[in-house]
Design brief:
Layout lengths: L1 H11 L1 H40 L1
Helix pairs in contact: 1-2
Length: 54
């Protein structure tokens, strides 16, 4: 793994390698946040529906 990382730095350069690494890490977090927002949207809709029924 480390060997591949060093080869990537030598081939692309340090700034590009770091940018790609951060892009990958952030994309994983964005997927998780998107799922959380969708779950929250469903919960809010359920609470509003329950309030309207009362």
């Amino acid at each position: 793994m480390l060997d591949e990382f060093v080869k990537l730095i030598n081939t692309l350069g340090f700034p590009i390698t770091v940018s790609l690494y951060l892009l990958f890490k952030i994309s994983v977090q964005i997927v998780s946040l998107t799922q959380s927002i969708q779950d929250l949207k469903k919960e809010i809709a359920a609470v509003i529906k329950n309030q309207n029924c009362e």
